[in-house]
Specification:
alpha/beta, about 15% strand, 6 strands, single chain, 10 helices
Amino acid sequence: MTLRIIIADDHPVVRIGTKAVIESSGVGVVVAEASSADELMAALTTQPCDVLVTDYSMPGSQQADGFTMIGIIRRRFPDLPVLMLSVSNNLAILRMVAATGVLGLVDKTSSMEELPLAIQTVQRGLPYVSRTLKERIDAIGTNTVDDVGTKPLSPREIEVLRLLGSGQTVKEIALQLHKSVSTISRQKGDAMLKLGLKGDAELFDYLRDGEI
């Protein structure tokens, strides 16, 4: 089966290399490319595809923030398998991204030989984590990225965690989002439970490097 694939990255060299690996492997054909989140949304709307291979954050767009972009994609195209290219070694942030419904995580610095297998794996609805990321996870000695997918965070839970990570208090978030303090506290607690975090110290350790 030749898969239809959309690739998105704001670096032309990454798109060129990714497309070359995909098409030379025979796993699929690149039907569209995007250099920004806005271009990606337009491509997804007009071009049917089987797998999306995307960078996390692409500046210069209305949805430049990675969580926002991935959240919109998951809501608009819930059945589309997403494989994310990452340069992060921050396990906590990677786990939060996986909790949004991203099935695959491939390190940009690792061998691109893994990419065809990763694409085939997520297209079947299975999670894939590249070897280098697995090695980092093993070195840290904590839960794997794969574990998160069983309990996805809601868009509002992600928003609350992001605002907490930016330094806001629960009360300030409640005022900004026009919700009660108890509602924000519950969403914070639900998100921590899904991510296996115990107490505020673990939560803020988790969030302190909040960029990929």
